[in-house]
Amino acid sequence: MKNSFVVGALMVLMLSCVSESQKGIEEARFLLDQGEFAQAIALLKPILADEPNNNEAKFLYGSALIGGFALEKKSGCRDTDTGYLGLLACLLDDKTADDSNGLKTFSRIAPENGNSNDEIAEAVDVLVSIKKFNERVPEKDVALQRLVSRAFAISSAFQVTGANSENTECNAGGAGVDDVPDEYDISVLTATQAADFRANLEGIEADAQIVGFDTDFNLITRVNDILADLEANGGSNLNAVRDLFDGAYNTPAQQVCN
């Protein structure tokens, strides 16, 4: 009799915990709909600490991290390009004449500082970790959020290397202005960051297939062109990515000060 009472009490306690967890998840969904991303993150963190395999909580948490990043001003986008759909529209605008593979289009949505870089990398990791799907965690929805998070993570490489910095001086010193961003320094890009850069390009291609984008969708064609140039660069992954950026931002012709 005593054992039955203990088991019953434990079951009630477990059901109570599940109920509280689900209540927090429902509240987080509401906060996401309202654009209250920071509040949703604060609510979901303790849930994931207690239930690290809760896929619904992970899905919402990754989505909240993306939403918070999308609220930050991006100097390469129009004021009307708000939210992550607005940033995607900015990213997908036509390439410029000097951007053969579309690499520079990612710089448009790059963060102005590195405050959010870790959160975006975390969003990618969290969304990638979701392996089981259902009506509340649809595979296509997860793939779309993962694709967006990967695009944002790729853009962070431009902030890290200074590729999206202003160009107002001659980097070599002296008079005139060159065509190299003032704070550009590809040597700061680490092997891990280079590996993540390539992995996210490859991941966008895979996620786009799950979402159902056509193969001629311009984001996919740009990703394929960038990956082809990485392969053509050869060498180690780090050197290939560094050469990719140098080819766009630090050629001998661009170094000339006029």
Cα shape: elongated
Terminus-to-terminus distance: 91 Å
Strand segment tally: 0
Mean pLDDT: 90
**What helical percentage do the residues reach?**
55-70%
Please mark out the parts with pLDDT under 50 across 5 or more consecutive residues, or reply none: none
Tell me the number of structural domains: 2
Class computed from helices, strands and strand pairing: mainly alpha
Q: What order do the helices and strands follow?
A: HHHHHHHHHH
Number of distinct helices? 10
Radius of gyration: 22 Å
Biggest sheet statistics: none
Beta-strand share of residues: under 5%
Write structural notes for this entry.
By secondary structure, this protein is an all-alpha fold. It has two domains: about 1-50; about 70-255, no CATH class. It has ten helices and no strands. The protein has helices at about 1-35, 35-50, 55-70, 85-90, 115-130, 140-160, 190-210, 220-235, 235-250, 250-255. The model has no long low-confidence stretch (mean pLDDT about 90).
List the helices and strands and how they pair.
Blueprint: H1 2-33, H2 37-50, H3 55-70, H4 83-91, H5 117-128, H6 139-161, H7 191-211, H8 218-233, H9 237-249, H10 252-255
Helix pairs in contact: 1-2, 1-3, 2-3, 3-4, 3-5, 3-6, 5-6, 6-7, 7-8, 7-9, 8-9
